[in-house]
């Protein structure tokens, strides 16, 4: 009897194996000999995914709402490079050639194209960032080189200097006669700017500052524009004043100085200045990064950028700010525009990648039901889950960074202290969150395009390599998120001490009160589509999570501080703190996306944006569903409903994906059509042109 059972079981296993093998052979046969005559059909599985009213999206109307009032200046940038194909960066180019091309691109855009970004750095930052996004989409190296010239070098002169500096340097910076550098980072000090070691000692006999690099660790490192093109550098150094006591000098903290590094006529390195090339990098090789060392380089006293602190002829120091820490904070506060620009530009990079991957996925066909045509790979649920939440995030980030730019522009005009603090926190958080997300997404987009995504012509490799450093410069992302967490904890303490919360944080008062109460057992079980797509539910869920994380990390820090001290407690809770910061930024992003949906004047565009916004919100909630389940904020059946609806929204967004990516309105030479989706002759022509046949 036992032998009969075993024999019967063996036959069933053999039959099942044979069935699987035959099915696989049939699939491969259909792949090698596809049916070509019938139109492409969607997967049957997705045809029955529910009913929703079709949305007729006007790409032009949606694009007009998305790109806003600075669309014209971006079109001017695209038109200039479209008219000058010789200035478009080729696929294969050496480091030295790329550097020279980048300089030609910048000079040509400014002098021939008539676009003067520097004029908008202070007066109209939103316009400047719009130009930067367009320029960066042409070549990211060009975008960074422009940022070094105008936002960093030029911005430091304008924001940290006074009228005499603006009068002397503005025109030369504007027309690129004065190419310059921003020399802050040192070999041993990047994020810890207060630890910089370069010194600027005042000599009252000659009325000069003497710039010195005291050791190898103080060499200025990774300085853009330094290796080849820069003639000036804004050098951040410790201002040392002579005293008549045993110390000999007094350290007044980090200040900024204008230091000429090359001769204006011969371009030779000036005496006492040593310049070294940082060489070939992972990406951004159109930017000439170099290292600077100073050996007793003398500069006039007027070269001190003296907005926040000045030295008189007799060596007396004066400042409107009473302490080194306040002067340091004011100095860095004026440089926050770099982070704003990086967050904004990172969204631009994400747009390019999502456009390429989505268009490819709509056109590329692989496999399908037996004896039927192959289907678009975007009809597969797995491909939708890779790309549609990413497309939704791109829209969310777009509106969030637009708001950040508006806040930054308002801050530059009003100099309101509360607004300055708000912008500092938002720029740190959004820069860290968005650049990290974009870096991961670039790899996902490459993988989503299969082997064809690996071709250099399809841009994923260069985009990934060029963008990677966005996570590090203008503030390491991990450090920036800790700043956000620290400010959240500060606001938390003030809330319980009865103080007022600033605008960005005021949701914490109500949300913290909600957290301290138990989750509502009724709403925890609501699972209707109307409820789950209600923006109030979505935003409450995001804010609840942030408040819960804030409350719990505050308790943990207090507990560990007793045994480990402040530094040790912070380090023990570091991952918790980073999660808190990310949660707060996600809440802010969703809030701005919801506002953008409500403010959209066109009904069809508003419906499309609502669909995308719902996908963004529910996908984020589902990704962290464990947090909500652990405290019964979401009951099991509601969690399943969220997952099911997020799947369905992915499918619905897929149905309007072409219109959504077309609304970014990027030129063809920026989002080159991936090889593998055109006709064979078109693909062959494009491929052979790009590999040099």
From TrEMBL:
Where in the cell does this protein reside? Peroxisome
Is Signal among this UniProt entry's keywords? no
Q: Which cofactor does it need?
A: FAD
Q: Which InterPro entries match?
A: ACO (IPR034171), ACOX_C_alpha1 (IPR055060), Acyl-CoA_Oxase/DH_mid-dom (IPR006091), Acyl-CoA_Oxase/DH_mid-dom_sf (IPR046373), Acyl-CoA_oxidase (IPR012258), Acyl-CoA_oxidase_C (IPR002655), AcylCo_DH-like_C (IPR036250), AcylCoA_DH/oxidase_NM_dom_sf (IPR009100)
Cellular component GO terms held in the UniProt record: peroxisome
Q: Name one GO biological process term.
A: lipid homeostasis
Residues forming the Acyl-CoA oxidase C-alpha1 domain are 333-489
Instruction: Give all residue intervals belonging to the Acyl-CoA oxidase/dehydrogenase middle domain.
Output: 181-297
Positions that bind FAD: 185, 224
What family name appears in the similarity comment? Belongs to the acyl-CoA oxidase family.
- This chain's protein is named Acyl-coenzyme A oxidase
Source organism per UniProt = Solanum bulbocastanum
């Amino acid at each position: 009897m036992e032998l009969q059972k075993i024999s019967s079981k063996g036959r069933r296993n053999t039959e099942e194996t044979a069935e699987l093998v035959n099915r696989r052979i049939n699939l491969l046969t259909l792949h090698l000999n596809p049916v070509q005559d019938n139109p492409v059909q969607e997967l049957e599985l997705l045809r029955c995914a529910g009913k929703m009213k079709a949305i007729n999206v006007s790409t032009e109307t949606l694009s007009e709402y998305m790109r806003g009032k600075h669309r014209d200046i971006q079109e001017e940038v695209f038109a200039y490079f479209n008219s000058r194909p010789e200035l478009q960066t080729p696929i294969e180019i050496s480091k030295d050639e790329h550097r020279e091309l980048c300089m030609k691109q910048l000079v040509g855009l400014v002098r021939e194209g008539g676009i003067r970004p520097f004029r908008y750095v202070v007066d109209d930052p939103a316009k400047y960032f719009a130009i930067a996004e367009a320029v960066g989409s042409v070549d990211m190296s060009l975008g960074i080189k422009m940022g070094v010239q105008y936002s960093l070098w030029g911005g430091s002169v304008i924001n940290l200097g006074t009228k005499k500096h603006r009068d002397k340097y503005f025109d030369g910076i504007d027309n690129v006669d004065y190419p310059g550098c921003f020399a802050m980072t040192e070999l041993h000090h990047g994020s810890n700017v207060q630890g910089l070691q370069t010194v600027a000692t005042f000599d009252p006999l000659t009325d000069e500052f003497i710039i010195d690099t005291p050791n190898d660790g103080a060499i200025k490192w990774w300085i853009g524009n330094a290796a080849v093109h820069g003639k000036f550098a804004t050098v951040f150094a410790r201002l040392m004043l002579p005293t008549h006591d045993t110390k000999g000098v007094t350290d007044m903290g980090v200040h900024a100085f204008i230091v000429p590094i090359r001769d204006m006529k011969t371009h030779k390195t000036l005496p006492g200045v040593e310049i070294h090339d940082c060489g070939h990098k992972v990406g951004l090789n159109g930017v000439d990064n170099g290292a600077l060392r100073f050996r007793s380089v003398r500069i006039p006293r007027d070269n001190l950028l003296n907005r926040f602190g000045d030295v008189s002829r007799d060596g007396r120091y004066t400042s409107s700010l009473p302490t080194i820490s306040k002067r340091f904070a004011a100095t860095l506060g004026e440089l926050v525009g770099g982070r704003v620009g990086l967050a904004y530009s990172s969204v631009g990079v994400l747009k390019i990648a999502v456009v390429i991957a989505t268009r490819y996925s709509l056109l590329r066909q692989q496999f399908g039901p037996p004896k039927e045509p192959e289907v678009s790979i975007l009809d597969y649920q797995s491909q939708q889950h890779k790309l549609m939440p990413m497309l939704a995030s791109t829209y969310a980030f777009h509106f969030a960074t637009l708001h950040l730019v508006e806040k930054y522009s308002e801050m530059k005009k009003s100099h309101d202290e509360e607004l300055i603090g708000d912008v500092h926190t938002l720029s740190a958080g959004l820069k860290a969150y968005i650049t990290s997300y974009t870096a991961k997404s670039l790899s996902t987009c490459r993988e989503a395009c299969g082997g064809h995504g690996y071709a250099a012509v399809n841009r994923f490799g260069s985009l990934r390599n060029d963008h990677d450093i966005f996570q590090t410069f203008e503030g390491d992302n991990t450090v920036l998120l800790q700043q956000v967490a620290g400010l959240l904890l500060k606001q938390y303490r003030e809330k319980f001490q009865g103080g007022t919360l600033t605008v960005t944080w005021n949701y914490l008062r109500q949300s913290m009160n909600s957290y301290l109460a138990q989750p509502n057992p009724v709403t925890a079980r609501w699972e209707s589509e109307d409820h789950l797509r209600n923006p109030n539910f979505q935003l409450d869920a995001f804010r609840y999570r942030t408040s819960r994380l804030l409350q719990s990390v505050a308790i943990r820090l207090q507990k560990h501080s007793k045994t480990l001290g402040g530094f040790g407690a912070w380090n023990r809770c570091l991952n918790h703190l980073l999660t808190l910061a990310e949660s707060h930024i996600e809440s802010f992003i969703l809030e701005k996306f919801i506002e953008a949906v409500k403010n959209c004047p066109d009904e069809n565009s508003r419906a499309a944006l609502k669909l995308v916004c719902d996908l963004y919100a529910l996908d984020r909630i589902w990704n962290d569903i464990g947090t909500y389940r652990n405290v019964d904020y979401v009951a099991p059946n509601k969690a399943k409903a969220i997952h099911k609806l997020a799947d369905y929204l992915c499918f619905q967004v897929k149905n309007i994906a072409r219109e959504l990516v077309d609304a970014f309105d990027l030129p063809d030479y920026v989002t080159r059509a991936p090889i593998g989706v055109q006709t064979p002759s078109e693909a062959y022509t494009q491929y052979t042109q790009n590999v040099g046949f």
